[in-house]
Amino acid sequence: MGRLLENILFENVKLSNDDFTKHYHDTYTIGLTYEGLLKSYNTYQSYTSYEQSIRINNPGEVHCGKSSQWSHVNFYPTVELISNLYEQIFHERKTPFFERHIIDNKELFFKLHIFFNAYFKKEEELVIETLLIDALSSLILSNTIYIKEYKKIFEDKKIVKDTYEFIKDSIDCDFTLDILAKNVNLSKFHFLRLFKKEFGITPHAFIINERLNQANNLIKNGSKISEASLNVGFNDQSHFGRNFKKYFGYSPSYLKK
């Protein structure tokens, strides 16, 4: 596959009944529901992903869900990919964020469906990339609600942003509440209260999620599962595997495959 889709994860899932704990991605999630339902929570609101609907998660949005006989396709385009396409359209390097978690737009659904179909059938690279650009440019033009500076995912959540950058730079360290609160010049009480209010999950869940995101990227880039888990601070392989499945809905070995 060409550089445009290099190391981007695709999923094609039939009749899922999985539950997904609260988590976020450092990429977008774009998916289509073909059958069944996903009852999901995204940024303090509940949604239902139904037949022939499009599902969008922006980078950094906390979401979870409970599926019922849910057949769907997903892919996880990077901020770089979407921002690059935005720049080609509008001639400025920005990160677009999309208006609705669930989109009911049959024309856009069909464009994305044709793209996914071509990808899973392993059609020619030129065909796949043409369909990808057609679908994503339609999404950007029809559903962008606001834009941010390139790669500044948590720019509107200062405590989360500062904590995210601190954790990301020292991902394999043992963080304490004292260390995290001191980093943003707050008491432990106020840090916990404001972090949960701004982001919707606890600092501990945030750290686990970021470790899993980084492990996910390492595995996609060729690292062994054991190496990836150790590099991000997991010393117990079974603990790593359980958390990975709980957060993302698939195992590290599925991702490696």
UniProtKB/TrEMBL annotation:
Keywords: DNA-binding, Transcription, Transcription regulation. SUPFAM superfamilies: Homeodomain-like, Regulatory protein AraC. InterPro entries: AraC-bd, AraC_XylS_family_regulators, Homeodomain-like_sf, HTH-like, HTH_AraC, Tscrpt_reg_AraC-type_HTH. Pfam families: AraC_binding (PF02311), HTH_18 (PF12833). It comes from the Bacteria. GO terms for molecular function: DNA-binding transcription factor activity; sequence-specific DNA binding. Residues 161-257 form the HTH araC/xylS-type domain. This is AraC family transcriptional regulator. It comes from Halarcobacter bivalviorum.
